[in-house]
Fold these 2 entries.
Entry 1:
Amino acid sequence: MVITHHGGQCFKVTLGDLTLVFDPIAKGATLPSVRFGADIALVSRNHPDMNGIEEVAYGGKAPFPVTGPGEYERRGVAIQGFLSRSAYGLAKGETEAPNAIYAVELEDMTLVHLGALADKELPAAAREGIDEVDVLFVPVGGTGVLTSAAAHEIAVSLEPKIIVPMHWSGIGEPKALEAFLKEAGNGSEKTDKLTLKKKDLLGRDGSIVVITP
């Protein structure tokens, strides 16, 4: 499995000829839109920074869309979506918006993407439905999503093998990543792509990996 970061909350996960994407960036977003083909596209928040399903219909691929809570299965990938709350990119008069947390099982690993989560605690359904977490994508940018302190707290509570901070590149508060790393205080590693097999998780316990776009 190879994970790359495309800004904001957008991560591409490739496994052989299978491509999955979390929160693809649409045209007209705060960030530059993405342009690659995906087989599965997961959208946590219905906002241009995260809902660019059309942008990943490319190169002969037509993505299977996952846009909210529920259970899904596609090409051997099991997905669970849990309803939570976001305060990111609200329209005038709105106080909150729905956000989906996704737990994805593939290649005997569980990836959990918290989306544009604002809640400091996971909803009960997510706490009950998410068991062992191998890779956790957590928003750290504040302003409608978790602050660096809240992001660290929720990340630690889930006991993932690897923590990947997001919502710091192109969106989020200035120096959000630095604030999160300071909060964590136990060092981090930086890479332009994360290549993982199950055996690579041995000995990892909350390791922070910054994937640069």
Entry 2:
Amino acid sequence: MQSVIQQAKRLIIKVGSSLVTNDGKGLDKQAIAKWAAQIAGLRAMGKEVVLVSSGAIAEGRQRLGFEKRPTAIHELQACAAVGQMGLAQIYESSFREHQIGTAQILLTHADLADRERYLNARSTLFTLLRLGIVPIIN
């Protein structure tokens, strides 16, 4: 694995909800700070990093006071919308400690299925990487 990382120019890192939340009950600030430090280390090695992160629904659940994960799509979307704010804030402050800027990218399947939208998203990601920003995709 070490050899693969050393040879790579760009790394895509996916962290699921279990890696960024406290048992699904809101965001784990310490875990996110560790992810930011590890990514800062990769950046110091000259690697471009794109972070794909879950956790918005779990954070929104906590902020909205839901005991259990909702099943209705409108409630899930409400949790994600509220939680995305907290997720972006924690990532921004964690990366700022390493003098690294971040950007929030929200993508849907439709964004990738439509050629024009896909090319626009790709161009945006490449621009952010060129500018030294860590794109965080949800």
